[in-house]
Amino acid sequence: PTVYLTFDDGPHPDVTPWILDELNKHEFKATLFCVGENVKRYPEIFERIIREGHAVGNHTMKHENGLKVSIEVYMKSVDEASKLIDSKLFRPPYGKITPSLIRQLKKDYHIVLWSWLSYDYDVEVSINKILHKANSIQAGDILVLHDNDKLVERQKELLPQLIELLKVKKLQSKSLNGVFTT
């Protein structure tokens, strides 16, 4: 009875430590797809993620949209981030990626998308609507949320309620460590 909570865009000093505290309180593990620039800016938070047993993944150096930059620019960003983020897990920012990039990335990474998108980043989507949609979550789902400066207070409202809903459904969260094999 497992789901895989994932967070994109961090680490961020105003929300990531709080998320880690919340996950620890409920003995949940997660996977945080980190932006290289943020890892460079907040190395102590990044180290805490790893130290506490969560998985990390590459989310590029500068959060580029794979449909809006060249393959060379995108791959340079991925490679630069990989010097800071030791992981074979990769999630494209915005979920946007071309077939050419997929072929290139699959040589070195497991590309991880999701089966349930929270829309936590969209203020037009109410927390209640997100939680209502969360009723469809089932074992095996990969859930995506965010840990960036745009939604600090919103995440603090959403995550505790989402965790409670998962617990009511008798679902636990694990990291993606070991889920993908070579």
Derived structural class: alpha/beta
What would you call the shape? globular
Summarize the main sheet.
6 strands, parallel
* Separate helix tally: 7
Q: Mean pLDDT score, rounded?
A: 96
Q: Could you tell me how far the N terminus lies from the C terminus, measured between alpha carbons in angstroms?
A: 24 Å
How many E strands? Answer: 8
Give the C-alpha Rg. Answer: 16 Å
What is the element layout, followed by pairings?
Blueprint: E1 2-8, H1 16-25, E2 30-34, H2 36-41, H3 43-51, E3 55-58, H4 71-82, E4 89-90, H5 99-105, E5 110-111, E6 116-117, H6 127-133, E7 142-146, H7 152-168, E8 172-173
Parallel strand pairs: 1-2, 1-7, 1-8, 2-3, 4-5, 6-7
Question: Keywords, please?
Answer:
182 residues, alpha/beta, two-stranded parallel ribbon, 7 helices
Protein architecture, described:
This protein is of the alpha/beta class. It has helices at 16-25, 36-41, 43-51, 71-82, 99-105, 127-133, 152-168, and strands at residues 2-8, 30-34, 55-58, 89-90, 110-111, 116-117, 142-146, 172-173. The strands form two sheets. Strands 1, 2, 3, 6, 7 and 8 form a six-stranded parallel β-sheet that branches. Strand 1 (2-8), helix 1 (16-25) and strand 2 form a beta-alpha-beta unit. The longest helix is centred in the last third of the chain and has 17 residues, at 152-168.
